[in-house]
Amino acid sequence: MLMKRYGAGTRILLILAPVLTALICLGIGRYSFNLADICKLLYTYAVSGKDAIEPQAYSVVFNIRLPRIILAVLCGAGLAVSGAAFQPLFSNALATPDTLGVAQGACFGAAMALLFSDSLLWVQLVALVFGLIAIMLTYSISKVKGQSSTFMIILAGIAVSSLFTSLVSLVKYLADPESQLPAITYWLLGSMAGITYKSLAIGGPLICGGILMIYLLRWRLNILSMSEDEARSMGIDLKKLRIFIILAAALITASCASMCGRIEWVGLLIPHGVRMLFGSNNERVIPASISLGAVFMLVMDTTARAATTAEIPLSILTAVIGAPVFILLLRKTGGGWL
């Protein structure tokens, strides 16, 4: 299945795939549009403004669907590229963006915020703060005599994840079972419903910044398999490189979790699928993960909101689809790409 050629044609396809998928997904729903209609609406808005568009069409496409499309692209690309960076960073094929407890910290922050406020913007801000607190805790705990190894970071991440998972359970136990508990449970299951441009303005730049940082460092990820001395001879400081990658992935994960809850499988499934297609060179894996992660999340979110009358929680949908696909890949290849 390995694509030996990774030329200009492949790069163009990887750029166009999320764009075309986003345009198609914009038109899918109870109020449907074909691709030509969507392109016409976008062109009319760009040239003449919203007054030239029929109000209902404007509300559906630009106020409801477009923010979700943007968030799906950002979260899919961000979580996939974080997983693709973490796996060589920790020399662990099963490393995901959740490894360091960031998502669990953000979920605790959101659950706690929902006890005191119904404002989604407030929930997002608190979740983002606790996600960043979680990564600081993980890094602090992992230090032994001022030094921090990848093994200790993983162990500290497991401990912090367990801590915040327990705190989430405590918040759910204390929540009002009629009003607060359903809201907390639904949020934790993951959903892009209710996303606004204001929410995107807070979390979007952090995700874009994290993705850009990992993209610019993509060729250096190949050096992580070298020893400290070999890397130093090439002028690369592995400790600083690990810190930059962890910081970028933490910003992405915390921002994604703060806006749409915890979404699993994206950071595990997409990087492995990409490595099966393009090999293990991270100069190829990183951009391909960005593209295919965005496409995957666009399809998942569109299915979640359009497949049934009641919206399906994203974490359920990604697990129902991601787990069987991952099992099929394991059975077919024997884990040879891991």
Distance between the termini: 14 Å
Helix- and strand-based class?
Answer: mainly alpha
Biggest β-sheet description: 2 strands, antiparallel
Give me the strand/helix succession: HHHHHEEHHHHHHHH
Envelope shape: globular
Average of pLDDT: 87
How many beta strands in the DSSP annotation? 2
Order of strands side by side in the largest beta sheet?
1-2
Low-confidence stretches: none
Strand content: under 5%
**What fraction, in percent, of the residue positions are helical?**
over 70%
General description of the model:
This protein is mainly α and 338 residues long. The chain has helices spanning 8-26, 35-48, 55-89, 102-116, 120-142, 150-174, 180-188, 197-216, 228-233, 238-260, 266-278, 282-306, 314-333; strands at residues 143-144, 147-148. A two-stranded antiparallel sheet has the order 1-2. Strand 1 (143-144) and strand 2 (147-148) form a beta hairpin. The protein starts with 7 loop residues before the first helix and ends in a 5-residue tail after the last helix. The model has no long low-confidence stretch (mean pLDDT 87).
Task: Tag the structure with descriptive keywords.
single chain; 338 residues; mainly alpha; two-stranded antiparallel ribbon; 13 helices; globular
Ordered list of secondary-structure elements with their pairings:
Blueprint: H1 8-26, H2 35-48, H3 55-89, H4 102-116, H5 120-142, E1 143-144, E2 147-148, H6 150-174, H7 180-188, H8 197-216, H9 228-233, H10 238-260, H11 266-278, H12 282-306, H13 314-333
Antiparallel strand pairs: 1-2
Helix pairs in contact: 1-3, 1-12, 3-8, 3-10, 3-11, 3-12, 4-5, 4-6, 4-7, 4-10, 5-6, 5-8, 5-10, 8-10, 11-12
